[in-house]
Design brief:
By secondary structure, the protein is of the alpha+beta class. The protein has two domains: 150 residues, Chloramphenicol acetyltransferase-like domain (Chloramphenicol Acetyltransferase), CATH 3.30.559.10; 248 residues, Chloramphenicol Acetyltransferase (2-Layer Sandwich), CATH 3.30.559. 35% of the residues lie in helices and 23% in strands. It contains twelve helices and 15 strands. The chain has a six-stranded mixed β-sheet, with helices on both faces. Helix 1 packs across helix 6 and helix 7 packs across helix 11. It is globular. GO terms for molecular function: diacylglycerol O-acyltransferase activity. One of its GO terms (biological process) is triglyceride biosynthetic process. It is an enzyme of class 2 (transferase). Pathway: Lipid metabolism; Glycerolipid metabolism; triacylglycerol biosynthesis.
Length: 455
């Protein structure tokens, strides 16, 4: 029996029919060269033999003395969690994305362990896919990425590899090294506030400095400053998932031309795509959109502890020039990182929690619509740097599938894999119609920057 942390309980409280609180991932694979045509069916038969389910995938919710806890599910039904499915013809990527959109819209049964593993055949010429979804109360995005990576290998000849539910459990402390988020920061402050009194002077000083900067500069990306947008309405339970890969060398070429970082270029691509999408919806606010951007502040090669911050960055969607937009994003992000440079990890976490508290209150209750702290989440989850294989199949791509919420109808998450950057966009199907067009706008945004740099 393991009690849930305050942050993990928050993911349960937030969940409702129109707001499922699970994260997911989509992986594309190519058959091994020597594989028979029924390779995926044979793979499904082998996976069914892994009946010994390891933590956290053997844990279900229970309530003891009114508090939620994780307990081992002694009657776990693997057939409910592992599903072998086929796409309808003609089995294009379009059908795959429609499948993920529908599955990601469904709530999971809280009487069972909160995860699903979908093995999907019928995709194009000798390809298949895996779609995994796990409740955010069980794992965070980075932990899920590590689990998927642990399932893979760099040896094309390795076979009989176990699925994610049968992997040896990782040390529990790694949960606390997960990716930054609004809820993790606020939950950390609420759960650890008694240990953090020493951070108060620095946090108070930086918070006051933030407010003063906002008063002096109307364009400053600060609390309560984000404009009203169609991105920040109440949503339905129906989701649209869109995904696309971009060659990392293209993005690095733009970085070199303008002296920026990969994250700067990715943010500029998202900003331009949002500008184009909202203009075509006749819904572009006069003021620039604000993004909540988790960033790594790690200065060494260590893996333990939280060394992350959350930046509220202007996307400068009011600017016409894509190059100007990129350079202003670069300067804003650099200034935000400079702000954190002299702060300890605990001071950064508490500063983040305080600046995001209004957003948390509004997203939880909807009672403060004028407290629009940010409009969209743009998150980057690092992935494997080398080509990966699973039971001889080459992984061609991996795409994150995140969470859309009331008053936060779009989440733009990306991950790196080898020489690719993989975008995964999840949004409310009704609030944001034709969301898939955002993929075209992302490509156009990158081409504009390349053309301006003469690439």
């Amino acid at each position: 029996m393991k009690p849930l942390s305050p942050t993990d309980q928050l993911f349960l409280w937030l969940e409702k029919r129109q707001q499922p609180m699970h994260v997911g991932g989509l992986q594309l694979f190519s058959f091994p060269d020597d594989a028979p045509d029924d390779y995926v069916a044979q793979l499904a038969d082998r996976l069914r033999q892994y009946t010994k389910v390891t933590p956290p995938f053997n844990q279900r919710l229970d309530y003891r003395f009114g508090q939620p806890v994780w307990v081992e599910d002694e009657h776990l039904d693997l057939e409910h969690h592992f599903r072998f499915e086929a796409l309808p013809t003609p089995g294009r990527v379009r059908e795959l994305l429609s499948f993920v959109s529908a599955e990601h819209s469904h709530l999971m049964d809280r009487e069972r362990p909160l995860w699903e593993f979908h093995l999907i055949e019928g995709l194009g010429e000798r390809q298949f896919a895996v779609y995994i979804k796990v409740h955010h109360a069980l794992v965070d995005g980075v932990s899920a990425m590590r689990m998927v990576t642990q399932m893979l290998c760099q040896d094309t000849g390795e076979r009989d590899m176990p699925p994610i539910w049968a992997m040896p459990p990782r040390p529990s402390r790694e949960k606390d090294d997960g990716g930054p988020s609004l809820w993790r920061s606020v939950g950390h402050l609420l759960g650890e506030s008694g240990k953090q009194l020493g951070t108060v002077p620095t946090v108070a000083r930086e918070l006051l400095r933030t407010i003063n900067d906002a008063r002096k500069d109307p364009a400053y990306s600060s609390i309560f400053h984000a404009p009203r947008s169609i991105l920040n309405q109440k949503i339905t339970g129906s989701r649209r998932f869109a995904a696309q890969s971009y060659c990392l060398s293209r993005i690095k070429g733009v970085c070199k031309a303008y002296g920026t970082t990969v994250n700067d270029v990715v943010m500029a691509m998202c900003a331009t795509a949002l500008r184009s999408y909202l203009m075509n919806q006749d819904a572009l606010p006069e003021k620039p959109l604000i993004a909540m951007v988790p960033v790594s502040l790690r200065k060494d090669d260590s893996s333990g502890g939280n060394q992350v911050g959350v930046i509220l960055a202007s996307l400068h969607t009011d600017v016409t020039s894509p190059v100007t937009r990129l350079m202003q994003i670069h300067e804003d992000v650099k200034a935000a990182k400079d702000r954190y440079a002299d702060m300890s990890a605990e001071e950064i976490i508490n500063y983040t929690a305080l600046t995001l508290a209004p957003a948390a209150f509004n997203l939880l209750t909807g009672m403060a619509p004028k407290w629009q702290t940010f409009n969209v989440v743009i998150s980057n989850v690092p992935g494997p740097r080398e080509t990966c294989y699973w039971n001889g199949a080459t992984m061609d791509g991996m795409y994150p599938v995140s969470i859309a919420m009331d008053r936060l109808a779009l989440n733009m998450t990306l991950t790196s894999y080898g020489d690719q950057v993989e975008f995964g966009l999840i949004g409310c199907r009704r609030t944001l119609p034709s969301l898939q067009r955002m993929l075209d706008y992302l490509e156009e945004a990158l081409v504009e920057l390349e053309d301006a740099a003469g690439l």
